[in-house]
Each structure stands twice: as C-alpha cells, then as structure tokens.
Specification:
The structure holds two protein chains of two kinds. By secondary structure, chain A is of the alpha/beta class. Chain A is built from ten helices and ten strands. Chain B is 31% helix and 22% strand. Chains A and B meet through helix 6, helix 7, helix 8, helix 9 and helix 10 of A and helix 7, helix 8 and helix 10 of B.
Amino acid sequence: MPETGGAPVLEVAGLRKEFGDLVAVDDVSFAFPPGRSLAIVGESGSGKTTIARMIVGLERPTRGTITACGHDRSRPVKSARDRRRRGREVQIVFQDPYTSLDPRQTAEATVDEVLRLHHGWPADRRRARVAELTELVGLDARQARALPRSLSGGQRQRVAIARALAAEPAILILDESVAALDVSIQAQVLNLLADIRDETSVSYVLISHDLAVVRQLTDEAIVLYRGEVVERGRTAQILDDPQHSYTRRLRASVPRPGWKPARRAS
Amino acid sequence: MNGPLLEVDGLTVLLDVEGAQRAVLRDISFTMRPGEAVGLVGESGSGKSMTARAIGRLLPRGAEVQGAIRFGDSEVGSLSGAALRRYRGQVAMIFQDPRAHINPVRRIGDFMTEALRTNLGVPAEQARHRAVDMLAQVGIEDGARRLRQYPHQMSGGMLQRIMIAAALLTEPRLLLADEPTTALDVTTQAEVMAILDGLRQDFGLTVLFITHDLELAAAICDRTVVMYAGQIAEVRASSLLHDDPLHPYTAALAAARPDITQTAHRLRAIPGRPLSAFEAPPSECAFAPRCPHARDICLQAVPDLAELDGGLSRCARAHELRGQLQEVPRA
C-alpha cells in the first residue's frame, strides 16, 4: 500500500493464523496512516473476520505482527493498564446488534461504563459526554434510556457505535456492521459513520462483503480470497477496474439495475 | 389454462401481538399467471414473508385470515386433509436459512426423496434416480455421493441448491422463495439466482420471489410488488421499477442503496424507520411520515392502490408526482 507520510496508525506484517490444519489467514500485510480508512473485502472463509479478531485481540496470530499507534498487539497484555490502553487504540462494532449489547444495560449506562473505565472522569463530565455521544449517533432521550429489547436493530447498532466511540479509539473496526440493517436504516448509519470520520480523526477498518458499502466509506481496500490478499489499492480503482479474476467475479456478482445472473462454467 | 394460477384477493391477516389482534397484512391483492415470476420486495415488517406464509398455509396458530387466496379452482383457506396435502405438493417453499429447515441427523437422500416415497408412492430406487437427476439440474454433478452425505458436510450454497432441487422434485406449480439467497455469499448468490432463472424457464415454473433487494428481484422477475407496513405500495414491471417508479417509497428505497459505481459523500437516507403493519396509522398513508413528497392530502385517508401507466401505486399524489420520482444523480 502506498505510504502517504507519517507513522502508520495500524500496521500488520506477515500475519498468519492457523486453526489446526486450516490456514485461515496467510501472510497478510497492510498499513495505513492516521485518519485513513481501509476495507477488507472477501466472502465467507476468506479470513477477513479472523484478521479483525486478531487486531482486536480476540485471537492470537500464529505468526506475524500487529502494531497499532506504535504499540505491538500480537501478544496478550500482562496488566489491566495495558489492556485499557489497547481499548483506547482499537474498538470494534460487530455485525449483529442483537447479540453484542448487554440486555440489562440501557444505552446511557453502556456508554457511561466505557467512559468510567477508560477516562475515569467524574459523574457530571461523563453525563455530558454520554449526552454528546448519544446525540452524535442519533439516539433521542427516550432511546438513550431504553434497554436493547425495546430498540430496533438500527438503534441498537447506534448504541454499539456510541459505545465504541466512547473510548475515543484511533481505530474503529466495523465488522459487517451495517450488513444486518434494512436498506433505509443502512443509509442512515453509513451517513453517520461518514460524519464521524469527518468530525474526528478516527480510522476505519471496514470488514465487508458489500462492495457498494465499501466504496462509500473507505480510501483503500484489500481483497482476500482463501486467506490471501489477491488485490490491493484505491477502493474506487479496484471497483472500477478490478485486476484479479476473483475481484472481477465478485464485482460482476453484485445485483444492479439491468443485472442478469450468469452461471459460471464449473 | 388461461386464468391466473394464484389469486390473492383482499387478504388481511391479524395476529396476536402483545395480547391484541393486530393486522400484519392489510388488503393484499395480486394475481400470478402460470409461468410468471413475481418479486415481493420490502423491508422488515413490511409483510412480505407473511404473505408467502399465508399462501403456503403456514401462518402461526391463532392467525385470523380475511379475504381469499385461490389456487387454480380451489380456495386455499378451506383446504384440509388430503386436499391440503395435495396443495402442499403443488406449492413448494424455500427459505433464507437452509440449515434451519433440514433435519441435521438425516442423510440428504432421505430428506430429498421423502415426499416422493411417502406422498406419491414412488419406489425408493426410482426416487433416488430422480433426486440425482434434479441435483444435476441445480449444478450438482456428483449427486449419488451427495445423497449419502449429511447437511453439516455441505456449504450454505450447496445446501440451498439441494433445497431447491428437493422443492422441485414433486413437480410443484408454484415456488415460494423467501429470501433464498440472503444468507449466501454474493458470488454464490449469483449462481443460485442463475439456477432459479434457468429452472423457471425450463420447467415453466411460477415463482414468487421474496427479497429486500429491488435489483435482485428485477434480475429474475417480470413484475415486482413493493410492500410497506403490511400493504402493497406499488406494482410495476420489474424492468421499469428502478428508473421509473410510481411510488415515493420505491424511489426512496432505490436512492438509499449505495451505488457501487460512484462514491457519494452522503447517501439519501430515508428518515425514521420502516413501520410494521400494526404500527401503521389506520386512516392515513403509512409512508407519509417519512415521505419527502407528503402533503395534507396524504393524512386524510389511506390512499387506494390505483392504476397508473401500466402499474399500480398507493400514493394520493401519484399522478401529480409522475416523472419526478426518478433517481437524480447524487451530489
């Protein structure tokens, strides 16, 4: 990936993950500077979610290094202090807003807990920031005090985004974060994510199979196929002029006006 | 046969929601000619799956059904016993998640041939032959081996193709396909769509294709029915739907979807969220609160589903807005 100057906010080098005999991720490398966003594109089994889980620290790489904000995160931390620091470097929003929130915690309490843990602010400062964050993601006062069960999927995903932003991470991983949403709600959440990117210096790592979504939110992209990077470059260029045969097939499979599905000769 | 194969006439379905009977479908009417493919498109809560379930006689217990569903000469709601079993042989259904609709501890062959053996009395060996032939039709060449395998040994795309093959084995006249490719990868989706389209042409199959994706429906359907809040908002030739919609909701839905060919700084989101039928106001346009074209007239009554330029639109201002709903290039 071309360097645009400055130290990368996230750098992944020679990353490999094996599950038994299966090589899920094979020699994946990428880096990008602060404020830029990267898409990791691929289908099921391509290794894209495994990469996300290794960056967050939910899986340990078999080989290779992950460096975020200048700190190595290829190995588990030893202290609670380091764990909290990592939380301020990288946060994640998962695909399913129905299973990624605590069912007994209101949106406000969810955000407040992160503020207390990461910033240790007094109650009034936290209260002000909770109000700011819930407003930023478009939750009204009633929704902010509601439990997840009385919120819609789109509203829950807003809570998950607010919770992730509360830690003020340098990097926000969006793992298929808009895939489960209705089209009209998906557009609202994508606009919200674009606004947040414009207003803060957060970098997104967008994990997605949806090329149209990828185009709206990222500068650069890597295309994964069976754990390996098969193509990389500017997102718009990859979509307008895909070079690898797999990227071309992926691009041709996207329904669009006038699209006719073609059977692949097998 | 010249008449419609399926006729849904004034279908209203009430379900028990939090202790009260509430409408989940309101006055749904449409017909399907033999060999026609119709798309049923909508967001969550629009009633698209409920419509398919009503046609398949798969509504939850306690559902109250008004209106009529006619299939050929029979009134679907009054079928029972042997007649209902015969009907179910003629109307097959495939679902979003094949794994939720197949017994994980039975072999594929056992699952595929069951209806043939038990309902139609086809001998086991002959049933297996027909299953292998049908698997070849959906692009699975090593059918004999597949029949000996279990569902967990298949990928999602393979399993969905097996579900399609199984659904077609009893030679149904109508296939109800409820988001059959939503859980699949896009490249697999493209293959399954191509298979469905091919089978439809080879077998003269009538298909009701349910999806949230306007363009996906247009790929294999002649006509598309767009649903919102338990009602039909628009019926339109699928090829015209994207560029020449008749209802503001259809136009807004097409515009909200990110475009793969251009980077937009902001998408044209629809404010608010989709309403479920039972949340929709009884005497005004259900889409009005989210509609950029809403005026006072939209709040005075539920608009009729009226004919317009070869389609149908449930919009009080449909005539007035003609030609103004097309997608304009994004800023």
